[in-house]
Amino acid sequence: STGTAGTPSGVSPNSLQSSGVAPAPELPQGQVFGESNKGVRVVLRMRDTARVLVEGPGGRVYMNRTLKAGDTYRLPNIVGLTLTTSNAGAVEIDLDGSVAGVAGHPQETTEALSLDPQSIMDRYSGNHGR
To answer: Rounded to an integer, what distance in angstroms lies between the CA atom of residue 49 and that of residue 67?
Structure first.
C-alpha cells in the first residue's frame, strides 16, 4: 500500500527527498584546498588524479601539487591565474557554483589555460561538446 501508513515508524516520508539534489556518488570526498580564500568564483574539482600548477601574475605559484579525484581547489579571486596540467580531462572547472566544463581531453597537456571568470565564460558558453 502507499501513503504514510506503510512508512516504517520513525521515518518521515519526505526525509529521503529533503534536498531534492543527490550528491555525485562517482567522486570521493577529497581534500579542499584554498578554504580561506574569500570571494571565490572559480573552483577546480578533480575527476581523476593529476598534477595541477596554478600560477598568477609575475609567475607566482598558488598551487603546485598532485590532486586526487574528489579534491577541490578554491582559487583566490584575482585576475591572471592560469592552469597547467598533464591531464586536462581530470580537471573540472566550476564558475560561480556551476560546472563550466573540463580543462581539456583526458591525458591532454594544458599549459597556461586562463582561469579568469570572463575567459571561462567565453570558452565554454559557445563551445558545448568541444
So the answer is: 6
